[in-house]
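User: For a benchmark we're assembling, each entry needs the component sequences followed by a predicted structure for the full assembly. Here are entry 17's components. Please fill in the structure.
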Amino acid sequence: MSIRTPQQSAHPSTDEPSVGEFASASGDLLDRLRERTPLVQSITNAVVTNFTANVLLAIGAAPAMTDIPTEAGPFARIASGVLLNLGTPQAEQREAMVEAASAANDAGTPWVLDPVAVGFLPVRTALAAELLALRPTIVRGNASEIIALAGLGAGGRGVDSTDAVDSAIEAATAIARTSGAVVAVSGPTDVITDGERIVRCSNGHAWLTLVTGGGCALGAVLAAFASLDDDRLLTTVAATTAYTVAAQLAAAESRGPGSFAPAFLDHLHLLDADTVRSLAVIA
Amino acid sequence: MSIRTPQQSAHPSTDEPSVGEFASASGDLLDRLRERTPLVQSITNAVVTNFTANVLLAIGAAPAMTDIPTEAGPFARIASGVLLNLGTPQAEQREAMVEAASAANDAGTPWVLDPVAVGFLPVRTALAAELLALRPTIVRGNASEIIALAGLGAGGRGVDSTDAVDSAIEAATAIARTSGAVVAVSGPTDVITDGERIVRCSNGHAWLTLVTGGGCALGAVLAAFASLDDDRLLTTVAATTAYTVAAQLAAAESRGPGSFAPAFLDHLHLLDADTVRSLAVIA
Amino acid sequence: MSIRTPQQSAHPSTDEPSVGEFASASGDLLDRLRERTPLVQSITNAVVTNFTANVLLAIGAAPAMTDIPTEAGPFARIASGVLLNLGTPQAEQREAMVEAASAANDAGTPWVLDPVAVGFLPVRTALAAELLALRPTIVRGNASEIIALAGLGAGGRGVDSTDAVDSAIEAATAIARTSGAVVAVSGPTDVITDGERIVRCSNGHAWLTLVTGGGCALGAVLAAFASLDDDRLLTTVAATTAYTVAAQLAAAESRGPGSFAPAFLDHLHLLDADTVRSLAVIA
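Assistant: Structure for entry 17:
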């Protein structure tokens, strides 16, 4: 956890951050994001491109969706982070995703795999396996998707999760250990693991599941934060915390999912490090 | 009309619901939708995917946009309902649409055809004819599109309707009788027919035409409601009524089409059966 | 400047409008737009299609996104104006763009080229050169894109502009002189030139850059206004002024980019000619 100085550690015998240090570092990383404006290439599904770009802009990152072959690879080399989301994987996008993952690996660009609705749908399931073998920096999905990706279950019914988050811990740990990725399982409590440590982030609001792209856009924010520090367990916790703290602030003043979405973008924009630190619920 | 009990009928000599029964059943079906969370596969145009998904989530359905060949068919078998919208019909989507319609027919999944801008544009017009021959459960369009689809006119100029709704009744009736579909013609008053009975739904607000996807998203809601009861004249009237009641509630507190859109999503989410029943204007 | 009557001219020795006349004519053209409801075909990137269509609807134009081969050309013949935006140029869209540009030229339909992120990305850069050779009516981009298009620089890093607007004046003038297009460079002050005269429009707000499509949708509005008068320097100034006046009115009552977006659509809808005239900052 490079952002932490040694004397801040509550676990002097290990290099692992304490829960309080995760909260503190989440605020630090938000400040760092605003200083650097990371450029995030999002090759994502047709439903959520607009919301994803607006989330990145609101929090302080720069979005780009360079998603065609021969352009996706060169762009992944200059991007700060890359998101590959399998929601509507047309042929050109599939080719572009493999190109981007390979170029990102070559250039050292962190990249996030979001295996939307893998399981019984053949094209995306094969593509997810191919991309997982390229060793993503982070894997994000709901419980059903993580279980399906690990080969332990039969997948969900589209983008819903029909499994509880805790039921996916075994699968998440297995993916993390075999691929080297940090794995984030979204749900009422987000569970994040690097294959050894398991961190639970419990901010957020259910309306985030009633705005399409509420989960998908988090994948892009994970990519943005991954560019800020080499400790990707930490950056994933920080991104998740900042994102879900903004969601709960927005929900508190909204009437339904319609008014929630613009309020969420406002709060991502207005969010400051102290608010993240004081409201973070991390265990 | 399976939702109606015999003693509620005002037309004891027939099996046709009365106008008051349509309003009452519209509320019942909204409750049923919230109980079942129907999964709606929307293969729709690139402009409205996001809004369509948010409309489905707001009213209580689950959206998915599985729109590539070899995935669209298997998904249509497990979906509660399917929407095929011809707004931006790229080659992969066209193949996926035919695959989804065939699989939906095979599995008994109700499906909606929205023949956006058919008439003089060659690709979508040929595709609409092909899909119509596969006998959609419901056809939804504006007057120009319905007239063009019936081969009675020359089509509109894009997504506008240049024809009055009543001018499309002959075309709508012809389509219904030859294809077996319930046909819904959108306009200030929506006209819905199964080829025999004609029902007019007069809720709504003009701002729904100033939010792109205001008509297209209704197609997805028609698919959601079609999964709830075998009487598709009834489910189409109910979906249209719930949708347009939410629109007029939203418009009453909005300043323009920008603030109307999130308010509409809020009201779809907050809408209850009694409000639908008391505000429904059905003739 | 056909909208101006001779006695209104402050430059009687030339046919060039004065700054005050630009402001006055901007209001006139907004009124004319509402009378005519120009039909704007937008072949644009996947991120901004929804916002672009909503902007056109809000200001009083009619959007259509007919973006596949064999349909794009016929549609460009009947459209009032065409936007070609290179943000996510899939193969079918690329073919459709060339088809639309050729048909637009043949039919006399004005068209706008937005060379998003041209420079080091190979596909769009080659396509931009091909389209520029077809002599667009208007070219719109940020400083980096305009410099790259003129072959004078190395391009930006995606959709950001890393160059100041004034640094692009030489490039903009060169493009205008060689292609015959009016060139609009977006920034805190928009610079617009026909290769001879340079006009600066200074309305707007920074939040327009934090809503994805804030620049791209302006391209569609430029196409709408271009259909209203043959003086495309004037129509470009008028479109830019109306658009950015609405933005600053919206920003004044918003809390962040999330609430700004619907407020912006409301103000585009509510905007009247006198407000445009009184708030215009043109030099």
